[in-house]
Amino acid sequence: MNKYELCLVLNAKIEDDERAALVEKAKDYISRAGGTVTNVDEWGKKRLAYEIQKMREGYYYFIAFDGNADSPAQLEENVRIMDNVLRFLCVRQDVA
C-alpha cells in the first residue's frame, strides 16, 4: 500500500453541512477504490491565488490515505465530476 494525499478546494459559498457531505463523499470514494483514510486536515477558508469560476475564496481540505497504485486514478474519476469542487490534486507521499 502506498501513501497518498488528496487536496480538495471547495466552493466557499456552500453551507457547512453541504461541505461536510462533500468531504464524506470523497472519503467514501477512497474506501470504494480500496484505500483507507488516515487523516483529514481542514485548513478552512483561504484566498485563492487566482479567480476560479468567478470565486476568489475556497475551503481547503487535505485527506491522507493509504491505497493501491490504481486508487488515485479511480478516485480522480469520481472527484472530477463532483459539484462544488473547484480544484483537486492527488499526490503520492514520499516515505523516507
Quick overview of this protein structure:
This protein is an alpha+beta fold.
Structure overview:
The protein is of the alpha+beta class. It contains two helices and four strands, in the order E-H-E-E-H-E. The protein has a four-stranded antiparallel beta sheet, covered by helices on one side. The two termini are 15 Å apart.
Strand count: 4
Give the biggest beta sheet: 4 strands, antiparallel
Beta-strand fraction estimate? over 45%
Oligomer: single chain
The rounded distance between the terminal residues' Cα atoms is 15 Å
| Structural class category | alpha+beta
Overall outline: globular
Annotation field: number of helices: 2
Helices and strands, in order, run as EHEEHE
Q: In which range does the helix fraction lie? A: 25-40%
Poorly predicted runs of 5 or more residues: none
Query: What is the rounded Rg?
Result: 13 Å
| Mean pLDDT over all positions | 93
- Biggest sheet, spatial arrangement of strands: 2-3-1-4
Descriptive tags:
globular, four-stranded antiparallel beta sheet
Write the layout of secondary structure elements.
Blueprint: E1 2-11, H1 16-32, E2 36-52, E3 55-67, H2 71-79, E4 85-92
Antiparallel strand pairs: 1-3, 1-4, 2-3
